[in-house]
Each structure stands twice: as C-alpha cells, then as structure tokens.
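Example 3.2
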Amino acid sequence: MFDQLRNIRERNKRLIEDGAIKVKAYFLPPTLHLDFDELKGNLEKQLEECSKNCHNGIVVVYGDSCHAEIKDIVRNYGAVKVQGCLNCIEMLLGKETREKIDPEKAFWYLSPGWCENWEKFLKDSLGLDEKEAKEQLKNIKKVIFVDTLGNYEEYKKDIEKFREYSGIQQVEKVEVGLEKLKNTLLNAINQALETKKER
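Structure, written as tokens:
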C-alpha cells in the first residue's frame, strides 16, 4: 500500500502502528499534487517497483480527483485504488458525511496535512496572492477542520493564518476519528488480495 498525501500519511501510519491494518507502506512526496505530470511519473515508477516486490497486491491511496488518469494508471499495474473517495477529505469523512454537512459544496476543508501545505497550493500552484485568494474564495462560507487524531489545538495558528489569507471568517471543527479511513483501506486491501488470487 502506498500514498503521497501528507494528510492521509500520518493517519495511515497510526493505523499501521496500532495494528489496525497490516501492510508494507510506501509514501510519495505530498507536493506531487501540485504537478500532475510529476505525480503521474512518480506514481508509475513506484507502481513498477512495487509490482515486482509486492506479492499480495498493491493498494493505492489516492482520491478519484487526485489525477485525471488515476484509475487507468492504477489498472495498468494490476493495482487497486481505494474506492468511493473523490479526495483525501472524503477518505477521512466519508462521502455521505461530507455531503450531509456540506450539500452545497460551499466549505473549504483543512486537515493537518492541508494546514501545512495550503500556502504551497494557493501561492505556488495557483499563484494567488492574498487579495486574489480572497476574491477567488469569496463564496466559501466556512472552513472545516477535519480532526482525526484529536489534535485541533496544535493547528489553531495554521488555521488562523489560512483564515486571514483567504478571508473566510467562519471555522468549524469536525471530529471524525480514523474508523472511516480504516474501513476504506481494509476494503481496498481485501479487494487487492482477491484480485491477486484471481491471477
């Protein structure tokens, strides 16, 4: 199993350390999200390597929207991608929960990983200065901090910095734990094992 989402990486490590999932994990740099060509090249390189060494199947922990060709890339290497997740936030919250709390898709989600990387995304990738960010995000109603490990307090300064830069005034914490992520990963691991048996 491997991923490159800093957001999901720490949660995966926690699940592995706690014995909730038993896998060998490979991680790619989270900044690959900012360059689709680089993401594809690195993912294919890692999948090539893993396809030679991972005899019980490969699970790729990416959302459907992480790359336009993600499903094809994964399929080309006989791997399995986690299902039912548009992005890392849906891996943590679950699609149903995200749709329930945000049916209009009017919220901006921050997780610990996003708290650490929002500047790279807004400034470096999108090239938005503070004024431009406020203009682009003016219709966002609130920031939702997705708290999986009960460590919201550690990120309050990062959240405040993002709030000031983006102009989004409201902030809400949603505590979710790791159960949804664990179940998503276990389903993908079981699918990978079944796929491997069929070959």
